[in-house]
Design goal:
Structural class: alpha+beta
Mean pLDDT: 89
Shape: elongated
Largest sheet: 11 strands, mixed
Radius of gyration: 22 Å
Distance between the termini: 59 Å
Number of helices: 6
Length: 295
């Protein structure tokens, strides 16, 4: 295979050279080999030598040396069904993730949000990537960066807690407290590999606010997440006697196959994206009116 010359697109601009090359060769070549290419001068940017962590910019031409791609029969192309797009611009795409679909691949899963993005944007130079995660059984809004700039901007907003995330959770039991109720705990991992669970007690601080939208034998709660600990909402509600319906890990045995936890809305950098869960039991407009009254 001869050397190739590729032009850095707007979406790719701002990446480190080594990361740009990793994305362009599609995982065929290990990072150690790519680093060796750069050190030896086999990679050129606008005909000049660069260091691995130098930034590439839109319009630059990068020489990628000859390399052997993995055989086609070892790279089966999977045509995953697309996800619903809730919002999209040049830098960001917001998707509606169904319950049961992992955010990332691996661990025996051959389908995930990442895999769906690869199918949806197969012809793009920069494949969008999730800027945060939702548990496999949690449905709802997930934001992805369509460009390096967009992904960095979202990741920074989540890291600095500049993004407001709201969830809907249907729980067992009558939630009688009025107004916004603070949920404050420390959460830690309990148990070994393969049977790990999160538990309240010692550990990292977990903060959230809960507001009851509807109360009865089952209650519908609006949750504003202030920290992003693993399984946080599930653990905090279960520890207070309000396990999420359908949560087999922290809840009671139930005939519900769908976990009733949904990322309803995310507000970040002037963008607000929302979606309603499929399992909701009341008219969507009525529910939106009920929720709007809590802000």
């Amino acid at each position: 295979m001869p050397a190739s010359f590729v032009t850095v697109s707007r979406a790719e601009s701002g990446q480190k050279l080594v990361r740009f090359l990793e994305r362009r060769v599609g995982g065929d070549i290990p990072r150690t080999a790519i680093m060796r290419w750069i050190r030896k001068g086999d990679v050129r940017v606008d005909k000049g030598r660069k260091k691995p962590f130098d930034i590439v910019c839109e319009g630059q031409v990068v020489r990628i040396p000859p390399h052997k791609a993995a055989p086609a029969d070892q790279q089966p192309a999977k045509n995953h069904p697309p996800l619903e797009i809730l919002f999209e611009n040049e830098d960001i795409v917001a998707l509606n993730k169904p319950g049961g679909l992992p955010s990332q691949g691996g661990s025996g899963h051959d389908d995930s949000v990442v895999d769906r993005l690869k199918s949806m944007y197969a012809q793009k130079t920069f494949i969008p990537a999730p800027a945060h995660r939702l548990d496999r059984d949690t449905s709802g809004v997930i934001l992805c960066g369509k460009s390096h700039r967009g992904l960095n901007s979202l990741s920074e907003a989540f890291r600095e807690r500049r993004a407001d995330k709201y969830y809907l959770a249907e729980v067992q039991g009558r939630f009688e407290e009025k107004g916004w109720v603070a949920l404050e705990d420390c959460i830690r991992k309990k148990g070994g590999a393969g049977n790990a669970r999160m538990a309240t007690g010692e550990g990292k601080q977990a903060l959230a606010l809960a507001h009851c939208v509807h109360s009865g034998e089952k209650s519908l709660l609006l949750i504003k997440l202030l920290t992003g600990r693993t399984h946080q909402i599930r653990v905090q509600l279960a520890s207070r006697g309000f396990p999420i319906i359908g949560d087999a890990k922290y809840g009671r045995r139930s005939s519900d196959a769908i976990m009733r936890l949904h990322c309803w809305r995310i507000d970040v950098d002037g963008i607000s994206v929302s979606s309603m869960p499929e399992w909701i039991g009341v008219n969507e407009r009525i529910l939106e009116g009920m929720i709007a009254g809590q802000f």
